[in-house]
Amino acid sequence: MSQTSLLHAVYGSARSFLRAHAAAAVLATSAFTLGAAAPAQAASTYAATKYPIVLVHGLSGTSKFLGVVDYWYQIPEDLRANGANVYVADVSAFNDETVRGEQLVSQIRSVLATTGAAKVNLIGHSQGGLTSRYAAAVVPNLVASVTTIGTPHKGSEFADFVESTPAPFQALVNLGADIFGSVLGWFNGNSNPQNGFAALHILSTSGAADFNKAFPSAGLANGCSTGSATDVRNGNVQKLYSWTGRSTATNLLDVFDPVLVFSGGVMQARGSGTNDGLVSVCSAKFGQVLSTDYAWNHLDEVNQLLGLIGWGAADPVAVIRTQANRLKTAGL
Fold it and tell me: Helices 167-187 & 3-28, crossing angle to 10 degrees?
């Protein structure tokens, strides 16, 4: 048996085992994939938007790691304490937007059925921004705004690098993605399908270009320019916002910083320019660009790891709270 055949055989066995156990977890629990709404009495109304906020995680993410630690660390509870009605989406950790996007559309419909609201405000981190754009294009009447944080709208040079590695290595990466994604799903009571190859391609520069052709947005512009602050789809006006970090090493205590220093260096060598370790500043620009100057890396953007951001850096929890207030002020 060839090396590639052996890898695929191991991959298939591991995937079947994990999916079977994930399915059992779903049958054993009736956990709703979305986080709870705002408490009956919030301490403030600063973030009390007209429409519910849905937070959408990125690649390798979930609503809660191991069923305990929020992907959006300390962010949902802060928004709720300030009056927001917040839900946390749980889509495939590794897949493309034809899968993740449809999962999000289904969860948006569940939020609207639960709350009676007419629309939602989507806030997506990393690939979650692409997932949010898919939903906004497919059900424009249900999406009031799209905010993207560190999203590779034009792809990531690091994804290009991984796609250039030998096939056996890519097969191992895909196997690891499927296992990790299935384990994440098991802890949260879902069996979302995983496909590392599909996720990798859509995050590459060529995959992102294909996605942008299939789901165009006025929020995008050529080169490193900024696009329109709104999309109008079938008469539905959607507000568009974005921001990103521009650093890699930000906190000596964060064990992921060396990884992002490496990936950011690979990106620089491939011509990305300034980046957050996984996404370039130019690729992250979308709609009304609120800032590209945050001293954050890709994980800092959602207050990870466990709130370990750089000394003197802006508080990502406060930045997202301010965005909720901006949406409220805009009547959204």
Answer: 10
Instruction: State the catalytic residue, choosing from 126, 145, 242, 247.
Output: 126
Q: Which two tokens stand for residue 141?
A: 């009447």
Rounded CA separation 35/66 (Å): 15
CATH number at residue 162: 3.40.50.1820
* 280 secondary structure, DSSP code: B
**Which H or E run contains 146?**
strand 143-149
* DSSP, res 72: S
204 catalytic residue (yes or no): no
110: Cα within 13 Å, side-chain hemisphere = 18
> How many domains, in total, are found in the chain?
1
Provide the pLDDT for residue 27: 31
Alpha-carbon distance of 222 to 232, in angstroms, equals 19
Task: Verify whether residue 201 is a known catalytic residue.
Answer: no
Res. 57 pLDDT band, cuts 50 70 90: very high
Give the active site residue among 57, 125, 153, 298: 298
Which neighbouring-strand residues pair with 68? none
Distance from C-alpha of 72 to C-alpha of 27, rounded to nearest angstrom:
27
- Tell me the residue ranges of DSSP E strands in the chain: 53-56, 64-65, 69-70, 86-88, 120-125, 143-149, 230-233, 236-245, 288-294
Residues 184 and 54: their CA atoms lie apart, in Å, by 20
**Residue from 96, 231, 276, 300 carrying the catalytic annotation:** 276
Range of the domain at 288: 3-329
pLDDT in tens, 149-204: 999 999 999 999 999 999 999 999 999 999 999 999 999 899 999 999 999 999 99
CB atoms within 10 A of CB 67: 13
Element (DSSP H or E) covering residue 290:
strand 288-294
- The whole-angstrom separation of Cα 29 and Cα 273 is 46
How far apart are the C-alpha atoms of 203 and 116, rounded to whole Å? 34
∠ Cα 113 121 242 (to 5°): 160
Active site annotation includes 2: no
CA neighbor of 242 nearest in space, from 82, 123, 86: 123
